[in-house]
Amino acid sequence: MHPISKLLIEYNTSLYALQKHHGMQQPSLSRSINNDTPIERMNVGTIVQFAHAFGEAPETILRKLLDYEEETELEKLFYRNINTGVVINGKELKESSDANVVALWGEIKDDDYEKESIGVSNFDEYKAYLQSYADPDFVQCNEDGSDIDWANY
Asked: Rounded to whole angstroms, how far apart are CA atoms 46 and 67?
């Protein structure tokens, strides 16, 4: 789903309503969605119009669109757990990993010796440390769980 579509869902509106009430050009936005246009290629004026329509700062709208774009890209990637064979998408893997980081940080946040031994002093450093050691139980795969033919990718 395109980031603009996700933004419309968040604000419970439609392209038609934006055109009718805020003068935004529905055909132009529809083309962006249908052509899967990257957010970086959007006109700044369009982001400002979204911001005005939703009562938000343009920076907030841009951040949401970029976050939705990243989420959309993660949803297109699939990973297979090599131990169980379970296939999940990149968004689910990220959410699971983030939850694990929070839980693990809870176990060591008050242990200065442990933090010093791995060279971290705060949550962000700890998260980066763990991410540098990617989860070896998951390998990227096709949506059906089969191996990717990287030679012909």
From this structure: 17
